[in-house]
Amino acid sequence: MGSYKKDKHRTSPLPESSNSNKDEMGSYNYKMFNLFNRKFKITEAEPPKDVKQLFSKFSNGGSHMTADQLRRFLVLHQDELDCTLADAQKIVEEVINRRHHLTRYSRHSLNLDDFFHFLLYDDLNGPITSQVHNDMTAPLAQYFIYTGHNSYLTGNQLSSDCSEVPIVKALQRGVRVIELDLWPGSAKDEILVLHGRTLTTPVPLIKCLKSIRDYAFASSPYPVIITLEDHLTPELQAKVAEMVTQTFGGMLYYPESDSLLQFPSPESLKHRIIISTKPPKEYLESSGIKRKGPLSPGGRNSSEEDDEASGIPYHTAELEADDRSDSDQDDVDLTDCDNKSGQLGAPAYKRLITIHAGKPKGCLKDALKVAADKVRRLSLSEQELEKAAATNGTDVVRFTQNNILRIYPKGTRITSSNYKPIVGWMHGAQMIAFNMQVYIVGVPADAAKRKTKIIEDNWSPAWNEEFTFPLTVPELALLRVEVQEYDMSDKDDFGGQTCLPVLDLRPGIRSVPLHDKKGEKLKNVRLLMGFQFV
C-alpha cells in the first residue's frame, strides 16, 4: 500500500557549552576523568550537497532565491500545493528578520545560507502539518484520542508529588484526556487528587480543575475529556458536581438524556469539556450501599486502581452501590446511614456525565456486548487487552466501532514507563492511557529498525544515509528517531528522540526537532531529514 523513505539527514549546530574551553582554532577541549583532555573540532554546519543542488535548481543558478522561486520550491519539491506568493514572501521576510535582525527589509530574497537556515526552522518547515486535515464530524468513537494516565503525577507511581503542573504540561502538548483520582480529605468537603494506596502527596481538586479550565485549549480546540476515578461519598459527589459546574461554566458539556445512542463529534464539541466516569448507582431506589472492612483514610472503591495496587499495606474500605439481589455474608448493610445529601448529590453528579464508564464484571465476552440503546466506555488493563485480543478479538473490534475502549498500564509500571499501544490501536481502542512522548513501529508486519553509521568527534554530524520502509498499514505506523552518543567502553548515551505519525509526515526536506526522555523539546537541536513516499 505504499512505502516511505527518509534520506540524508543532518543535525544543526549545537549551542556552545559553558563547561568547556575553546582554543583559537575553533575546537573545544573537554577534560575526561581528570586524566586527559578530549578535543572536539567545531565546524559551522554548511549546507549539504543536496541542499546546494536544490538552491541552484530553483534559483536558476543564481546567488539569491526570490519569493516566487521559493514558492516554486515549496510547491514542486515540498508538495505544499496551496502555497501562494504571499505565503512565500512572508517566509522570506521572516527568515531575513531572524538571521539579520532587520526591521526594514533591505532585500527580498534568500542567499544559500538563508535558504539552509529556513530548512532548519522547525516552526516554518516542520515534519508534520499543524493543520487538521481529517474529517472531525464523525462520533468520538471513530478517533484515536491522546490520553494521559494519572495525569497529576510529577514522577513515579509510588512516591512522587501530585500537582496541577503535569496537567498543564500535558494540555500544552495536546493531551485531550486527563485522569483524576478523587479522594476525600481530612476536612469536611475537602476533595483531593492522589494515587490511592501509595505515598504520593495530594493536590486539591479545585487546583486541577482551574488548571484544566485555563489551559484546556492551549494547543487544540477539540474537547478535553476528564476521566474521574471516584472514591467519594454521595455528599462529596454533590460537592464535585458543584465545583465542576462553577469552574467550567459554559465550557462544560453534558447531554440532556441519561444515555446517548452515539457520541457527539469532536467538531461539535470544540472548546468544550466533558466528564467520563462510572455513574453512581441508583441507591435511592436500591439502598444497596455496602461496606467491606474497616473504614480509614486509605479507603477506596473497587476500581482500576485495584489493578495498579503496589502492595503498600493500607487498611482499605470498599464502598460500592450494588443492586444485586444477593450479597456476601460479610457485607455490612449501611442503609441506615443518613443519605439525605446523597439524594441531592446523585442526580446532580450523574447528570454531568457524558461518557458513562465501567470495568468488566463477569466474563469478558459479556463485558464487550454492544447495547442497542446506549454507548459507553470500557476500561481494560494492558494484560486484559492482550487476553481479549487473543480470545475475543472480533468482539473487541465490534465494541470499538461505536463505544470507547480505554487501556491503562499494569500496576508494576511503578516508574511510569509505557507499553506499546499497537495492539490496542489494531483493535480500535481509542484511549491508550500513557505518555505518547515514546525506527518504524506499527502493526507487526511494519515493525522495522535501521541504524546509521557512527560519526565521531563532530558537533554537526552528517550521515547522508537513506533507508526505505515498506508499509502495509501506514495509518498505524510511527517513525521513532533516536540519536545516541557513541561510547566505545559502555552503553551509548541517549541524545534525543522524536516520534512522528507516518501518515502525517510532509514530503520533502524537513526540520525534525528532538526531545528528551520526558518529551520536552530540546533547544537548538534538530535533524534535517528528507521524506519521500512512493
TrEMBL record:
Kindly state a single biological-process term from the GO annotations of this entry.
release of sequestered calcium ion into cytosol
How does this chain sit within the bilayer?
A: Peripheral membrane protein
Question: Recorded E.C. number(s)?
Answer: 3.1.4.11
Region listing for Disordered, in residue ranges: 1-25, 284-340
Q: Which GO cellular component terms, listed alphabetically, does the Swiss-Prot or TrEMBL entry include?
A: plasma membrane
Entry's localization field? Cell membrane
Q: Where is the C2 domain?
A: 374-516
Name any one GO molecular function: phosphatidylinositol-4,5-bisphosphate phospholipase C activity
The enzyme class is hydrolase
Q: Which SUPFAM superfamilies match?
A: C2 domain (Calcium/lipid-binding domain, CaLB), EF-hand, PLC-like phosphodiesterases
Query: Which residue intervals are annotated with compositional bias (Basic residues) in the record?
Result: 1-11
CDD domains xref list: C2_PLC_like
Q: What is this protein called?
A: Phosphoinositide phospholipase C
